[in-house]
Amino acid sequence: MTLGELFKHVDFKEIAPLIVQLYPDMGGSLAHFKQAFDILRHLKPQADADDADENMEISKCYDDEDDGGKFYYCVEPRCEVASWESCLAKEVVLKDEITLSDNEIAVHCLWEMTFFGFDAGCTAFWDRIEGKTDDSNRYAVAAEKLENKMRSNYLPKQFRDAVAGTTYVSSEEWLKERKAMGEKRWKDYHSAKYLPMDVKERTRRNRAKRMRDHRQEQRIKKLERMAKVENVIRDLTADTQSFTREELGYLFDTKLITNDSYQSHSQDVSQRMDYLIDLFSNYVSDDYSQFTHFLLMFRTSSDYPLVQGELDRIVDFFKQYLPLSADIRCGYGNDENLDVEVGLFFLGYSW
């Protein structure tokens, strides 16, 4: 059975509890697993001529002895070296005398394929690896520069250029570089280049350095929040007349803010609102009780605009789903890439 056939054979309602059981930290991401699962079910499997792996193999792997030496299930090839279409065309093979149900196999494969992101290209991950920063968001640029400066203060000299952002490479070069450097040296380099500084490196700070680091950390948090709000405003005001940038400037002064993006994958214009309602009813587990105001931005293609019946139904749902005293505002915009589907940018905030 190919992986594509397996995904069409199983039901997400049955594998969702297994995701929580096998990967407890992923319980809050079920809605995004659901969307990724439906994307995979509708993708056309296509073997890649440059991909030598004909099978999707599941085998037993073991943690380091320092971590207890426990085993876990590995899925190869990994998602960073094979496209989703290519993976779907592969035969699923169980090694090491493993016995798993179809639902368990689906969960392990789905987890691996979404390890770096819930979109087919893992674009957010590769943008980070390749050092792609939105230069137009001055808050994000300032936060990154300050964070890199902090990390470089506690790194060996040979790693400082990497942190300064002068040696970022493409995804293909990244994989080639990893193989050439060897696993041990790569881990040291990768940790210095992309991950937050190790607390152990800062244990011998004197009081002046601790005070400096505290000020910089607080500044980074503030800049990151402002960068987040800036991106939220951009998302809400793109291709719409429902909101203006000047109108939403107050979001910088809010106390709490949460946002996420969702999209239907129903393949049927008459079912797209049912998809979103099912998504929030069964798979979105966020607690919105602390938020008092909500902005809901719906987007569709111009060929399949929202009709009044859809709007009434989804608004009635959110009036019941969100806190009863919440102030809910809706906006409507265009996204020609959505075809028959509907996208939802969801924002909650409080003062």
How would you describe what is shown here?
- This protein has 351 residues and is of the alpha/beta class.
- The protein has three domains: 3-120, no CATH class; 138-226, no CATH class; 240-350, Tubulin/FtsZ, C-terminal domain (60s Ribosomal Protein L30, Chain: A, 2-Layer Sandwich), CATH 3.30.1330.20.
- Helix content is 44%, strand content 14%.
- The protein is built from 13 helices and seven strands.
- The protein has helices spanning 3-9, 12-22, 30-42, 84-88, 102-113, 123-129, 138-152, 160-163, 171-181, 183-194, 207-237, 272-282, 308-321; strands at residues 55-62, 71-76, 91-94, 256-263, 293-300, 327-334, 343-350.
- It is globular.
- Mean pLDDT is 83; it is low at 165-171 and 192-200.
The N- and C-terminal alpha carbons lie at a distance of 53 Å
**Compute the gyration radius: what is it?**
23 Å
The largest sheet is:
4 strands, mixed
- Percentage of residues in DSSP E strands: 5-15%
Mean pLDDT, rounded to whole units?
83
Number of domains: 3
Order of helices and strands: HHHEEHEHHHHHHHEHEHEE
Q: Which of globular, elongated, flat, extended, rod-shaped describes the shape?
A: globular
Count the strands?
A: 7
| Class by alpha and beta content | alpha/beta
Low-confidence stretches: 165-171, 192-200
- The assembly state of the depicted protein chains is single chain
Helix content: 40-55%
Number of helices: 13
Across the major sheet, the strand order is 4-7-5-6
Write the layout of secondary structure elements.
Layout: H1 3-9, H2 12-22, H3 30-42, E1 55-62, E2 71-76, H4 84-88, E3 91-94, H5 102-113, H6 123-129, H7 138-152, H8 160-163, H9 171-181, H10 183-194, H11 207-237, E4 256-263, H12 272-282, E5 293-300, H13 308-321, E6 327-334, E7 343-350
Parallel strand pairs: 1-3, 5-6
Antiparallel strand pairs: 1-2, 4-7, 5-7
Helix pairs in contact: 2-3, 2-5, 7-11, 9-10, 12-13
